[in-house]
Specification:
Blueprint (H helix, E strand, L loop, with lengths): L1 H23 L2 E7 L1 H5 L2 H13 L1 E7 L2 H10 L4 E4 L2 H9 L3 E16 L13 H11 L3 E3 L5 H13 L8 E3 L4 H11 L3 E4 H7 L6 E4 L6 E9 L9 H11 L2 H9 L2 H4 L5 E2 L5
Parallel strand pairs: 1-2, 1-3, 5-6
Antiparallel strand pairs: 3-9, 4-7, 4-8, 4-9, 4-10
Protein backbone atom coordinates (compact mmCIF):
# COMPACT_ATOMS: atom_id res chain seq x y z
CA UNK A 1 0.00 0.00 0.00
CA UNK A 2 2.85 2.33 0.84
CA UNK A 3 4.33 1.76 -2.61
CA UNK A 4 0.99 2.45 -4.30
CA UNK A 5 0.61 5.60 -2.23
CA UNK A 6 4.06 6.77 -3.26
CA UNK A 7 3.26 6.21 -6.93
CA UNK A 8 0.01 8.14 -6.52
CA UNK A 9 1.83 11.08 -4.94
CA UNK A 10 4.39 11.06 -7.74
CA UNK A 11 1.63 11.10 -10.34
CA UNK A 12 -0.14 13.99 -8.59
CA UNK A 13 3.09 15.97 -8.36
CA UNK A 14 3.82 15.30 -12.04
CA UNK A 15 0.33 16.52 -12.99
CA UNK A 16 0.79 19.67 -10.90
CA UNK A 17 4.16 20.31 -12.51
CA UNK A 18 2.67 19.88 -15.98
CA UNK A 19 -0.17 22.24 -15.11
CA UNK A 20 2.25 24.83 -13.78
CA UNK A 21 4.35 24.46 -16.89
CA UNK A 22 1.31 25.10 -19.06
CA UNK A 23 0.44 28.17 -17.03
CA UNK A 24 3.87 29.57 -17.76
CA UNK A 25 3.45 29.07 -21.50
CA UNK A 26 3.07 32.42 -23.25
CA UNK A 27 -0.33 33.50 -24.45
CA UNK A 28 -0.67 33.54 -28.21
CA UNK A 29 -2.41 35.77 -30.74
CA UNK A 30 -2.79 35.00 -34.44
CA UNK A 31 -2.44 38.02 -36.71
CA UNK A 32 -3.45 37.56 -40.34
CA UNK A 33 -1.96 40.33 -42.45
CA UNK A 34 -0.85 41.27 -45.93
CA UNK A 35 2.43 40.39 -47.54
CA UNK A 36 3.29 44.10 -47.77
CA UNK A 37 3.47 44.57 -44.00
CA UNK A 38 5.71 41.50 -43.84
CA UNK A 39 7.88 42.12 -46.91
CA UNK A 40 8.67 45.72 -45.92
CA UNK A 41 9.82 44.66 -42.46
CA UNK A 42 7.19 46.78 -40.71
CA UNK A 43 6.05 43.87 -38.54
CA UNK A 44 9.60 43.40 -37.28
CA UNK A 45 9.30 46.91 -35.83
CA UNK A 46 5.77 46.57 -34.46
CA UNK A 47 5.30 43.03 -33.17
CA UNK A 48 8.19 42.49 -30.68
CA UNK A 49 7.28 45.50 -28.45
CA UNK A 50 3.66 44.30 -28.30
CA UNK A 51 4.78 40.78 -27.41
CA UNK A 52 7.04 42.04 -24.64
CA UNK A 53 4.51 44.43 -23.12
CA UNK A 54 1.72 41.86 -23.10
CA UNK A 55 3.74 38.68 -22.50
CA UNK A 56 2.20 37.18 -25.60
CA UNK A 57 3.48 35.36 -28.66
CA UNK A 58 2.13 36.72 -31.95
CA UNK A 59 1.80 34.22 -34.77
CA UNK A 60 1.94 36.18 -38.02
CA UNK A 61 0.27 34.75 -41.11
CA UNK A 62 1.25 36.92 -44.10
CA UNK A 63 -1.05 36.31 -47.07
CA UNK A 64 -3.15 38.31 -49.50
CA UNK A 65 -5.97 40.31 -47.94
CA UNK A 66 -8.61 38.00 -49.43
CA UNK A 67 -6.95 35.03 -47.77
CA UNK A 68 -6.57 36.94 -44.51
CA UNK A 69 -10.29 37.73 -44.47
CA UNK A 70 -11.05 34.07 -45.20
CA UNK A 71 -8.88 33.05 -42.23
CA UNK A 72 -10.91 35.41 -40.08
CA UNK A 73 -14.18 33.96 -41.34
CA UNK A 74 -13.01 30.47 -40.36
CA UNK A 75 -11.82 31.62 -36.95
CA UNK A 76 -8.20 30.80 -37.83
CA UNK A 77 -7.03 34.32 -36.92
CA UNK A 78 -7.83 36.61 -34.01
CA UNK A 79 -7.07 39.98 -35.58
CA UNK A 80 -6.50 41.21 -39.13
CA UNK A 81 -4.28 43.96 -40.55
CA UNK A 82 -5.32 44.30 -44.19
CA UNK A 83 -5.86 46.77 -47.05
CA UNK A 84 -9.16 46.32 -48.83
CA UNK A 85 -11.69 48.80 -47.35
CA UNK A 86 -14.64 47.37 -49.31
CA UNK A 87 -13.76 43.81 -48.38
CA UNK A 88 -13.23 44.85 -44.77
CA UNK A 89 -16.63 46.60 -44.66
CA UNK A 90 -18.31 43.44 -45.98
CA UNK A 91 -16.42 41.32 -43.44
CA UNK A 92 -17.82 43.47 -40.63
CA UNK A 93 -21.32 43.73 -42.15
CA UNK A 94 -21.48 39.94 -42.45
CA UNK A 95 -20.80 39.66 -38.73
CA UNK A 96 -17.28 38.27 -38.87
CA UNK A 97 -15.44 41.36 -37.64
CA UNK A 98 -15.74 44.11 -35.04
CA UNK A 99 -13.81 47.20 -33.99
CA UNK A 100 -12.46 47.99 -37.49
CA UNK A 101 -10.20 51.06 -37.43
CA UNK A 102 -7.93 52.87 -39.88
CA UNK A 103 -4.24 52.38 -39.12
CA UNK A 104 -2.16 53.84 -41.94
CA UNK A 105 -1.96 54.32 -45.68
CA UNK A 106 0.53 54.53 -48.48
CA UNK A 107 -0.11 54.29 -52.19
CA UNK A 108 0.00 51.98 -55.14
CA UNK A 109 2.24 52.70 -58.13
CA UNK A 110 2.51 51.22 -61.59
CA UNK A 111 6.04 50.00 -62.25
CA UNK A 112 7.72 48.66 -65.32
CA UNK A 113 11.00 48.62 -67.27
CA UNK A 114 12.69 51.96 -67.80
CA UNK A 115 12.37 51.42 -71.58
CA UNK A 116 8.59 51.70 -71.06
CA UNK A 117 7.38 49.93 -74.23
CA UNK A 118 3.75 50.88 -73.49
CA UNK A 119 4.63 54.58 -73.19
CA UNK A 120 2.81 55.20 -69.92
CA UNK A 121 5.46 57.19 -68.07
CA UNK A 122 4.11 60.21 -66.17
CA UNK A 123 0.48 59.49 -67.01
CA UNK A 124 -1.73 60.98 -64.29
CA UNK A 125 -4.64 58.53 -64.45
CA UNK A 126 -4.00 54.87 -63.66
CA UNK A 127 -6.94 53.62 -65.77
CA UNK A 128 -5.53 55.37 -68.85
CA UNK A 129 -2.15 53.72 -68.26
CA UNK A 130 -3.84 50.32 -68.00
CA UNK A 131 -5.74 51.04 -71.22
CA UNK A 132 -2.51 51.77 -73.07
CA UNK A 133 -0.82 48.64 -71.69
CA UNK A 134 -3.77 46.57 -72.94
CA UNK A 135 -3.88 48.25 -76.35
CA UNK A 136 -0.19 47.60 -76.94
CA UNK A 137 -0.42 44.17 -75.29
CA UNK A 138 2.78 44.69 -73.34
CA UNK A 139 3.29 42.08 -70.63
CA UNK A 140 1.50 42.77 -67.37
CA UNK A 141 2.03 40.58 -64.30
CA UNK A 142 -0.97 40.36 -61.99
CA UNK A 143 -0.78 38.97 -58.49
CA UNK A 144 -4.00 37.10 -59.20
CA UNK A 145 -4.38 36.12 -55.54
CA UNK A 146 -7.44 38.11 -54.38
CA UNK A 147 -5.15 40.28 -52.25
CA UNK A 148 -5.82 43.94 -51.56
CA UNK A 149 -3.41 44.81 -54.37
CA UNK A 150 -5.16 42.44 -56.77
CA UNK A 151 -8.53 43.91 -55.78
CA UNK A 152 -7.23 47.41 -56.50
CA UNK A 153 -5.85 46.23 -59.85
CA UNK A 154 -9.24 44.76 -60.83
CA UNK A 155 -10.93 48.03 -59.87
CA UNK A 156 -8.61 49.96 -62.18
CA UNK A 157 -9.29 47.55 -65.07
CA UNK A 158 -13.02 48.08 -64.44
CA UNK A 159 -12.51 51.85 -64.53
CA UNK A 160 -10.73 51.38 -67.86
CA UNK A 161 -13.64 49.24 -69.15
CA UNK A 162 -11.29 46.36 -69.89
CA UNK A 163 -11.38 42.65 -69.01
CA UNK A 164 -7.69 41.78 -69.42
CA UNK A 165 -7.00 38.53 -71.21
CA UNK A 166 -4.48 37.06 -73.59
CA UNK A 167 -0.87 35.98 -73.38
CA UNK A 168 0.25 39.51 -72.44
CA UNK A 169 -1.73 39.35 -69.16
CA UNK A 170 -0.27 36.86 -66.69
CA UNK A 171 -1.87 36.13 -63.31
CA UNK A 172 0.63 34.36 -61.09
CA UNK A 173 -1.11 33.85 -57.74
CA UNK A 174 1.93 35.09 -55.81
CA UNK A 175 2.71 37.65 -53.11
CA UNK A 176 3.97 41.12 -53.92
CA UNK A 177 7.67 40.38 -53.60
CA UNK A 178 7.52 37.36 -55.90
CA UNK A 179 5.34 39.28 -58.38
CA UNK A 180 7.84 42.15 -58.52
CA UNK A 181 10.72 39.76 -59.09
CA UNK A 182 8.87 38.04 -61.94
CA UNK A 183 7.91 41.37 -63.53
CA UNK A 184 11.56 42.39 -63.36
CA UNK A 185 12.71 39.15 -65.00
CA UNK A 186 10.18 39.52 -67.80
CA UNK A 187 10.57 43.27 -68.30
CA UNK A 188 6.88 43.60 -67.53
CA UNK A 189 4.49 46.01 -65.82
CA UNK A 190 2.73 45.43 -62.53
CA UNK A 191 0.82 47.24 -59.81
CA UNK A 192 2.50 47.34 -56.41
CA UNK A 193 2.26 49.12 -53.11
CA UNK A 194 5.06 51.66 -52.86
CA UNK A 195 6.48 50.22 -49.64
CA UNK A 196 7.16 46.74 -51.03
CA UNK A 197 8.61 48.23 -54.20
CA UNK A 198 11.06 50.33 -52.19
CA UNK A 199 12.00 47.33 -50.06
CA UNK A 200 12.84 45.31 -53.21
CA UNK A 201 13.97 48.14 -55.49
CA UNK A 202 17.70 47.47 -55.23
CA UNK A 203 17.33 44.08 -56.90
CA UNK A 204 14.73 45.04 -59.49
CA UNK A 205 14.99 46.27 -63.06
CA UNK A 206 11.79 48.25 -62.61
CA UNK A 207 11.02 51.92 -62.16
CA UNK A 208 7.96 53.83 -61.01
CA UNK A 209 6.13 55.06 -64.11
CA UNK A 210 2.69 56.14 -62.85
CA UNK A 211 1.90 57.56 -59.42
CA UNK A 212 -0.18 60.18 -57.67
CA UNK A 213 -3.67 59.26 -58.90
CA UNK A 214 -6.13 59.45 -55.97
CA UNK A 215 -7.43 56.06 -57.16
CA UNK A 216 -4.07 54.60 -56.11
CA UNK A 217 -4.45 55.38 -52.40
CA UNK A 218 -3.80 52.28 -50.27
CA UNK A 219 -5.58 52.33 -46.90
CA UNK A 220 -4.85 49.74 -44.19
CA UNK A 221 -7.27 48.78 -41.45
CA UNK A 222 -7.20 46.59 -38.35
CA UNK A 223 -10.16 44.38 -37.39
CA UNK A 224 -10.85 42.07 -34.46
CA UNK A 225 -12.59 38.85 -35.42
CA UNK A 226 -16.05 38.74 -33.83
CA UNK A 227 -16.07 36.51 -30.70
CA UNK A 228 -19.87 36.37 -30.77
CA UNK A 229 -19.63 34.65 -34.16
CA UNK A 230 -16.50 32.62 -33.42
CA UNK A 231 -16.23 31.97 -29.66
CA UNK A 232 -12.69 30.58 -29.73
CA UNK A 233 -11.32 33.96 -30.81
CA UNK A 234 -8.98 35.65 -28.33
CA UNK A 235 -10.84 38.92 -28.41
CA UNK A 236 -9.19 40.47 -25.34
CA UNK A 237 -5.76 40.12 -26.94
CA UNK A 238 -7.09 41.27 -30.32
CA UNK A 239 -8.51 44.37 -28.64
CA UNK A 240 -5.15 45.03 -26.98
CA UNK A 241 -3.43 44.77 -30.35
CA UNK A 242 -5.87 47.25 -31.89
CA UNK A 243 -5.31 49.68 -29.01
CA UNK A 244 -1.56 49.22 -29.42
CA UNK A 245 -1.32 49.73 -33.19
CA UNK A 246 -3.59 52.79 -33.12
CA UNK A 247 -1.86 54.38 -30.11
CA UNK A 248 0.05 57.61 -30.60
CA UNK A 249 3.35 55.89 -29.69
CA UNK A 250 2.97 53.15 -32.30
CA UNK A 251 1.68 55.60 -34.88
CA UNK A 252 4.95 57.51 -34.46
CA UNK A 253 6.90 54.29 -35.10
CA UNK A 254 4.90 53.76 -38.29
CA UNK A 255 5.50 57.38 -39.37
CA UNK A 256 9.26 56.97 -39.05
CA UNK A 257 9.53 53.48 -40.49
CA UNK A 258 11.70 53.39 -43.61
CA UNK A 259 13.29 56.82 -43.26
CA UNK A 260 16.67 55.51 -42.18
CA UNK A 261 16.88 52.84 -44.89
CA UNK A 262 14.96 54.35 -47.81
CA UNK A 263 15.08 58.07 -47.08
CA UNK A 264 11.30 58.23 -46.85
CA UNK A 265 8.47 56.79 -44.80
CA UNK A 266 6.85 53.69 -46.25
CA UNK A 267 3.54 54.22 -44.45
CA UNK A 268 1.60 57.24 -43.15
CA UNK A 269 -0.32 56.71 -39.90
CA UNK A 270 -3.94 57.88 -39.79
CA UNK A 271 -5.61 56.11 -36.88
CA UNK A 272 -8.80 58.05 -36.13
CA UNK A 273 -8.23 58.16 -32.36
CA UNK A 274 -5.12 60.37 -32.69
Amino acid sequence: MQKVGSIFIILVLASLAAALGCSRSPKSLTLATTTSTYDTGLLDALVPPFEKANKVKVKVVAVGTGQALALGERGDADVLLVHDPKGEAKFVADGFGVERQDVMYNDFVIVGPSSDPAGIKNMKIAAQAFTQIAQRQTTFISRGDESGTHTKEKTIWQQAGISPQGSWYQAVGQGMGATLNLASEKGAYTLTDRGTYLAYQRNLGLTILVEGDEALRNQYGVIAVNPARLPKIKYDLARKFIDYITSSETQKVIANFGRDKYGQSLFFPNASNN
